[in-house]
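Our preliminary data section would be incomplete without showing what the modeling component actually yields. Below, a chain of 161 amino acids is followed by its predicted structure, encoded as tokens that our downstream tools consume directly.
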Amino acid sequence: MNRYSEQHGTIHAISISRKKGTVKVNVPSALLLPHWGIEGDAHAGKWHRQVSLLSMDSVRKMRAKGLNIRPGAFAENLTLENVDLSVLRIGDQLKIGSALLRITQIGKECHTRCAIYYAAGDCVMPREGLFAEVLEGGPIHVNEPVTLLPASHLELEPERE
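Predicted structure:
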């Protein structure tokens, strides 16, 4: 697939936790707050990792290794279906309803091995997880369409004289 082609998918799951270090729970809907993240999620705040994302394909990959896991098990806020997150780069954007997110980080360093790593010998979040900031807020719902917009689509045309 051409990286610069728009992709359309859906939200498979929305997951939040009220306290850091606790398991995220799946919810049917949430409110994205501009420059903050998901309302009520412990990882929201004025920083570059306001919302975490993972593809449902990544969850399936770990299930194939024998893990009985659900979306949100990797502490991701949004588990997306039918999108190839691997083509996204920092600066690319996601449109979900009236909300707009911008990718700020790809993967993350795990300072300690998580329980998933010890159970399967691998964890996808350090390589396949993405992080975003909320540029425009709004309500989001499970099964809602998601459009991935590479940053090249967002460049302004040069001014004409």
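The chain has one domain: 7-152. The CA atoms of residues 23 and 102 lie 25 Å apart. Preliminary results of this kind motivate Aim 1 of the renewal.
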